Amino acid sequence: MAKESSLKNMVSTLFIVCLVSSTLLGGVYAITKEPIEAAAIAKTNSSISQVVPSFDNDPSSEVFTKELEGNIYKVYPAKKGGEIVGYAIETFSTNGFAGRIVIMVGFNPDGTIFNTSVLSHSETPGLGDKMVEGKSNFSVQFKGKNPADFKMSVKKDGGDVDAITASTITSRAFCGALESAYKVYQLCVEAPTNKVNSNE
Amino acid sequence: MSKLNLLTKGIIMDNPTFVLVLGMCPTLATTTSAINGLGMGLATTFVLALSNIAISLVAKQVPDKVRIPVYIVVIAAFVTILQLLMQAFTPGLYATLGIFIPLIVVNCIVLGRAEAYASKNSVIDSALDGIGIGLGFCLSLMTIGLIRELLGSASIFGMKLIDGDGILAFVLAPGAFIVLGYLMVLFNKVKSKMY
Amino acid sequence: MEYIIIVISAVFVNNILLAQFLGVCPFLGVSNKVSTAAGMSGAVVFVIALATLATYILQYYVLVPLGIEFMQTVAFILVIAALVQMVEIILKKISPSLYQALGIFLPLITTNCAVLGLAILVVSKEFSFGGAPHMLNMVESVVYATSSAVGFGVAMILFAGIREQQELSNVPKAFQGTPIALITAGILALSFMGFAGLV
């Protein structure tokens, strides 16, 4: 039935199997590399379109970065007919209950928040993960608010934000991320930027 | 065994989850919702079918002493192909299932079927066996996922049924164990009535 | 100080078995007696410590520099399988008594999802043991993985203790065997949830 288990047979079989597998995998990797990159860009684009008003440019290709307190933030400008209709800013907080939370925040040209979209997190299902849009009304309360006069901290800390029940830490982290995004936004509107990647 | 029998035995008689009690890790971890359970089931079926075919083809050429490492390499290769394809075409599901996709390599169902069936049977039979057991796995995972989602998040296939929350424990670890335990009891009762 | 947090977090708060579902198959299969559970756990801790070290080095010194991270699954499982084989051979030679105690469990460990799972976990995501989230360095990875394995052992031994007691009680026929084991595990998992927020 099976080949005899001589050392030569064993080694050569293993070698051939590994060789064929690696080649096959290398091939599949090469073929799927582009679709994988495209999928990542599509994900970013879809979150951008959720957080800013409708636009007709390609924010991903006009992305630039701003530096705030030692961290780099990506800013995606949304334009219609060449005029800015919003800024989508990828912000984050490392103070989530279970680590880093990454959020895409969209600001209108007047500084109010259009919408938010959680990109990644490790918060507890049913508790912290209620910050994700659709899972509770937590994220809805930020729409239309201007951080200039809306105190971006939970009510417990003297702010205006209704925290998620039993998830104060997550709520605080969310607010912190939004606060950073607003500061980045202010950097964007102070100094008009070009389409080219620029650092300040 | 008839071809149809091969395809359907995985549903009740040789159900990998409730009868063979294999592949418990992904069963408990990925059944937080019906869609996640189904996705995991389909991913595993993909690997099961392909690795069964590949191993059935090469079984005769493989010396006995190295057969387990060889099977593992073959299975690992198909799992990697699955990973790449999912990253490219189903990134959402890929992110949700997370670490349990590469863990299909050590899912005892896959290696078990390769060793017990594929290495000893024809390519067509092995393929059908893989699909059949995979089908049973899919149905089990989807059922468990459905119950956990219904009780835990008050939703079905992602659609919320009521405005409030479900019983959180069911989407967390304890719920997984307990739902599986009770379902197993139910399943065994049904099975003993049928056979 | 951070290492203490890593250990407590891995053993109790995020117990690899009861919270992350890795290593469930041997958990259900090998836990009828406390002695076998202890033996299996010992073997698992040993293998995981070595395997995580080996795969960490493999990932950061071979796979990433060569740009072939997609080979991770294949490379890792091969390393683990080879490691287990080696450990078996070495153990047989240097300590026949230890081999007698642990030996039968070793081949089972290759397919233990906890081993491959932890190996992939430590190189895949950021951890934040009380500080800022970051990718783990080599020492942190091995400490985390080994502690998780200890957590596996703790859960297994507790479970085996409960099961030994259950042998003596009247379990309804339909529940005997795996079902009651699962429900017990669920209640154990529920109790471990109490550790959440400890660190």
Structure notes:
The complex is a heterotrimer of chains A (200), B (195) and C (199). Chain A has one domain (51-190). In chain A, 34% of the residues lie in helices and 23% in strands. Chain A has helices at 7-51, 168-190, and strands at 64-68, 71-80, 83-96, 99-107, 113-120. Chain A has a 5-stranded antiparallel beta sheet. In chain A, a hairpin with a 2-residue loop joins strand 1 and strand 2. The longest helix of chain A is centred in the first third of the chain and has 45 residues, at 7-51. Chain B is mainly α. Chain B has one domain (3-140). Chain B has helices spanning 3-8, 24-29, 34-58, 67-89, 91-97, 108-116, 123-153, 173-194; strands at residues 155-156, 159-160. Chain B has a two-stranded antiparallel ribbon with strand order 1-2. The radius of gyration of chain B is 17 Å and the shape is globular. The longest helix of chain C is centred in the first third of the chain and has 33 residues, at 34-66. Helices cover 71% and strands 0% of the residues of chain C. Chain C has helices at residues 2-13, 24-29, 34-66, 72-94, 96-102, 106-110, 113-122, 138-167, 178-192. With 199 residues, chain C is mostly helical. Chain C has one domain (2-195). Chains in contact: A-B, A-C, B-C. Chain B binds chain C through residues 21-25, 28-29, 68-69, 72-73, 76-77, 79-80, 83-84, 99, 102-103, 105-108, 111, 169, 172-178, 180-182, 184-185, 188-189, and chain C through 18-25, 28, 70-74, 77-78, 81, 110-113, 115-117, 120-121, 124, 174-175, 178-183, 185-187, 189-190, 192-193.
Give a quick account of the main beta sheet of chain C: strands, pairing sense, barrel closure.
Answer: none
Extended strand count of chain C:
0
Count of folded domains of chain A? 1
Measured as a percent range, the helix fraction of chain C is over 70%
The helix/strand order of chain A is HEEEEEH
Number of helices, counting only DSSP H or I runs of 4 residues or more of chain C: 9
Describe the protein's topology.
The complex is a heterotrimer of chains A (200), B (195) and C (199).
Chain A: H1 7-51, E1 64-68, E2 71-80, E3 83-96, E4 99-107, E5 113-120, H2 168-190
Chain B: H1 3-8, H2 24-29, H3 34-58, H4 67-89, H5 91-97, H6 108-116, H7 123-153, E1 155-156, E2 159-160, H8 173-194
Antiparallel strand pairs in B: 1-2
Helix pairs in contact in B: 3-4, 3-6, 3-7, 4-5, 4-6, 7-8
Chain C: H1 2-13, H2 24-29, H3 34-66, H4 72-94, H5 96-102, H6 106-110, H7 113-122, H8 138-167, H9 178-192
Helix pairs in contact in C: 1-8, 3-4, 3-7, 3-8, 4-5, 4-7, 7-8, 8-9
